[in-house]
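Support case: user asked for a sample of complex input and structure output to validate their parser. Sending the pair below.
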Amino acid sequence: MAVLTTPSVYVVDDDVHLREALGNLFESVGIHVELFGSAAELLARPTKVCAESCLVLDIRLPGVSGLDFQNQLARLGNNIPIIFMTGHGDVPMSVRAMKAGAIDFLMKPFRDQDMLDAVSNALALDRNRRASEDELSALMGRYGSLTSREREIIALVTSGLMNKQIAGQLGVSEITVKIHRGHLMEKMGVRTLAELVKAYEALRPGLNT
Amino acid sequence: MSRFSPVAATLIAVAVFLLDTLTTFDIAIAVLYVVVVLLSLNFANQTQLVAIGAGCMGLTLLSFLLSHGLELPVESIGRCFISLAATGITTFLAFRLKAAIGILEDSEQRYRSIFLATGVGILQMDFTGLKTAIDKFKTDGVQSVEDIENLDPGFVRKALSSIKLINANNTALNMFNMPDINRLGTLLPALVSSEVERKVWNFVASIWAGNHSFEAETVIRTSQGRQLIFLYNVAVPPDRPTLDMVLISIMDVTARREAENELDVARSQLAHVARIATLGELTVSIAHELNQPLAAVVTNGGAGLRWLRRDVPDLKKVESSIEGMVADATRASEVIKHLRGLSVKSSPNAVNVNLNEIAEETVALLQREIDVNQVTLRFDLADHLPEIHGDRVQLQQVILNLILNAIQAMANAPGRRRELLVKSSSEEAAVVLRIQDTGPGIPPEVRDRLFDPFFTTKPDGMGMGLSICRSILTAHGGSINATSEPGAGTTFEVTIPFIKEVG
């Protein structure tokens, strides 16, 4: 499987002429672009995306509509930013798309500059998203290296308990708690309690406790 | 004659009586009473004839008695008997003759009143001159009427002035607004305007071919300048081969034709309104059809400028961008062209058209509707489909309506296969177009009313679509009908004859 590392735009529209026009536009400003006639074609694409990217999607696609595709991606856990292209009279659909997390929608015929602005916003957003996701996954990795005792202690420390209280709760000595605490701070890559609390808060939604 | 006949008859009767009574010739003078009876035919009716006959026979007997008294010589009795028999037989024959004359007179009177008072204008004409002229061409070796047209283009005018009007009924005089037959006869050739000379040529061809009847419709401009449409029939009695008596019966169909024209105008206006309404339903699809190429134009244009404004302009890319713009703009104008056809309000214009082409154009307009509703479209168009004579816009309207109905029927029934088949074929003398869907079908109680005006099953429907389809097809000499199996879909079948008969 090829791994793509340049910023990319994926265009899905059933009209080959508009698709190619968009391809031409993105190429002219040096953005890598891939064109697809339907959602299914995009899903069948074998390349793994490892750089910031965004989708430019026609809201009325034959087969799986743009909105359905948006939901499908969300269910798959794919958070790629989506810019919808809408036609005349598609306002209710556009509203639904925005509520479902689309970052922009452009009414056809749109100005080329508006499209480029929307795409560069989307790419910036994706870049940030990817950065924070990378950070989070690094944190998750660090958390994964903790022993079960250390995980117990990190939960108690970040809930605001003193070492003495923790030792009491766990039935161990205060020294032991201090040693574990030193280890876990080191493993989590933090130096202060405030940093630890912040990292743990970022992790919490993904933990099963 | 008849004024003097009673007097003459009476004088003769008196003379015969005196001679018969006072002279004694050996001849049957009383036989001369026959003259009295015959003269009476002129004035007496049947009863009076019998009375006169009986009177003459009475006088014969009276003379016999007066001149012979009671002697009865055999030869005199014989003479008297012969006289009585002659008078009696003549009276009887005169009586029969009178009856026959009466019937003839009644009949003549009846036909005269029919001729004069009937609602049909009748001209009795003498075409001898025309017939002679045509025969002369034939003997000169001219092969056909077309040849006459080439040889003598003014022949029609000459032909018109060579015909003579013998008689015309009152209806005909009123139709032409002429005071009397002479004036009508003089002005008749001038009433045939040059635009309708073609009809006269057709008529000449009919005579050339020896037909006994010719029927046509023509426009006549009266001397007051009013334009009238006459339907006329020229009848040549088979026993008058010289055409010295030709009957032309004329009906004024101006009012009828005007009403028909008004109906046509109303019908085409209604069809226009329905087209606009259908286009209204399709606004979103049509806007999309237009916005799609427009978006491509703008995008390609923007891209082209960017390629051009690079530090080193990429002219190849600029070129392909501009090519893209041209192609996209052309696509947009195609959509407009299709739409303009449907929205323009024009009177029906019949040309030779191929139904396959119209079907494809119409589907192009509906492509979005087909895609969005996830309908699978299948074309099964016959190769070398014969052309038909028809109005492109109206036929497009029919197909548009039928396909749109089919799509809507399928879209409103979730969980079914959605297949639309557009199939054309030529059958006997007609082109048949079938539009078949896999919708829920039409319930039997609806099917009978399908083509009724204002009948609709759609909540926002006008109920005119199919009714207008049917009137359009009727105007094309064709028909439309629907077959449907509830649960298995509906097929609309449009039949249009190859060449519409000239009305």
